[in-house]
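Box S2. Input/output pair 1.
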Amino acid sequence: MSRWAKFWMVAGLLAVVGMAFRVSWNALRDVATAIGADADAAFVYPLVVDGLMALALVAALVLPQADRKFALRVLAGYTAASLVLNYVHGLVPTLHTAGRARLADWAPAHWALVLLASSLPVGSIFFGSDLVAKVLHHKPEPAENTQTIVNRSGSELREQADPDPTESVYQSPDPTPAPAPTADPTLPVVEAVPVRPVRAVAAVTSRPRRATGTVPQSARTGRPTRTPEQLLAEARTATTDWPDDQLTAERIRAAVRTSADRARTLRDALKAERAAGRPGLHAVPDTDDLPAAAKGPAPETGEGNEEQAS
């Protein structure tokens, strides 16, 4: 439907509604005068009924499902009340004199019609305020959720992407390179700029990814455990070049990444291994305790030398 067709359709609707409102205006004004309203009150009385009908119709188009039903009930109720009062205006000729008159010959019917006509202004205040508050506090929902758009974009990219995602999106249909044209010596030489292949990029959403729950026990990867023999072998390899004064439990714990208790156990084991592998120091015996053969020949004195000389 074109823009001008919509314009003329809306303009025709407004014209019809305006003429219908003018016809209903006369009847509702006479009914308001008949129940005791003054001239000014009777003049604005049609706005109380027909005006709230228009407001309820607009609210029904704007509000969501739950509040829309309430607006439609208000619209239906005031439409029925306006229809009843227009019907009474057509049946009672005395109402056309624009004076106070009975709305029905039967007393209960007269009382009911007076109650209906007098309660419409109060109902307009209540229902009209409620509808306006609902419209002002209503937040229109977006046409499409952000996550829906992202999912749809991702699916469209997957449908349009190559079977192999590592391949470039744009590929030459013929891998054989075309023959290079003959260079013209009169033209300047321009170096070719390499073109980087364009790859398909998945849509990224700005919304944080929600938690998916705890990982089941069957899907968890167990932490590898080491036996005492393996820990001792690792500690022995790591501390090969360490002197004895630096062989501490804290350094062993940091080197093999284990607990403090195991580090102390490894320290004691390594110190015991070093003490067992080191040769013992032999004590030097006293010469007085050695036998005579072990002592060797006695040193020569001067007297012996003199005797030999003589």
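Box S3. Input/output pair 2.
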Amino acid sequence: MRVPSLREAGAEARLLLIGIPVLIWTLIPIYHMFLFAISPKQDAFAGKLWPDHPTLNNFRIVFNQQHYFLRDFWAQFGNSVVIAVAVGALTLVIATSAAFAISRLRVRGGRTVMNLALFTYFIPAAFLAVPMYRTMGNYGLLNNHWSLILAMVTIASPYAIWVLKQASDKLPLELDEAAIMDGATPLQLFRMVYVPLMLPSLVAVGTYALLLAWNEYLYAFLLLSKDTEITLPVALGNFLAADDSPWELLMTTGFIYALPPAAVYYVFRRYMVGGLTAGAVKS
């Protein structure tokens, strides 16, 4: 068995010295949230590492919507799911089609589209919130899920196009030429050659767009207002409107809301790094 050299051992030790504090720093807020979730209200601010009387009653209250701020919990959770899935799907359709046309079909003006897509990220998304609100108002989409879906697709698509285009450039052109010689149409080339080869990047980009919409607060707050139409992040903000906020229920709801993206990332984790960095280095 090969024995690591002193240099390799030193490099691993330095990584551990950096990684362990970062891991602890990352887990502390999650543990603090979980601690609130299993604590009775009177013990929530006791400052202990573990409550004297841990309970799951807070989860029961949330699931059964037994609090004023939680009366539409399941509707709001469902809104978040529908909007996030719709944003992920639409972003994938737009970005995949655009990247295919620019990278494989070499459509005229493709470079200009790529430069414009990159340019959009020089403008912070928060600066576009008011213009987006005005635009959605002009089209009568305010307080409609489509307003938030379209807004998030607008924000996610440029980055998705850029990533998929870079990954598409790595695919051998000989595959396209062979398919064309066999009589494949551009649509068949897209469906039978391009999509299967791009699957890791598609999964990564779709996950990125889904999680972006799942965690969005500003646009959701501006574009949606009805309690039955808002997403759960906006509903969580309502907890802070009370003089005596139920922090244990707020943390419980937040902990529940954090579980789906964690599960999505866990399922697709092997695609994330490879998919989002595909094409980053030219061969």
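Caption for Box S3: Residues 83 and 261 are 14 Å apart (CA to CA). Confidence is low (pLDDT under 50) at residues 279-283.
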